[in-house]
Known about the structure:
By secondary structure, the chain is an all-alpha fold. Helix content is 66%, strand content 0%.
Amino acid sequence: xxxxxxxxxxxxxxxxxxxxxxxxxxxxxxxxxxxxxxxxxxxxxxxxxxxxxxxxxxxxxxxxxxxxxxxxxxxxxxxxxxxxxxxxxxxxxxxxxxxxxxxxxxxxxxxxxxxxxxxxxxxxxxxxxxxxxxxxxxxxxxxxxxxxxxxxxxxxxxxxxxxxx
Length: 165
């Protein structure tokens, strides 16, 4: 009996290997490399829910679930990440992209912050020396105050201050 079990196991292994070997060339012709196949988790961060205007990975509204299902279908069809991105834009428009394309009016998103930062730095470089010079001049000039106190007033002031000390 143990010999029969061993023969069946060997026969099953040989049949499975032969079947797999025969099917391997057919699958290899249609298969894509494993590293090129994106996952739903890696793609969710790149897209927005078009109704919530929140990242797709953070929401679970019906619209977000529909978008996730659409992405999952594209992954199952074997699309690459760039193909899925293009299909999502066709299906839902540019609003679905987490990072808008750097063209047209959207280019301001990429150009304006660094330009404002440079403009602010240039403004500080221009005005700081003037502010410092003004503060040095103010420190160098003596303060013009009230006329000096008379002897009686100075004595009374000293007496008043002595009570507080």
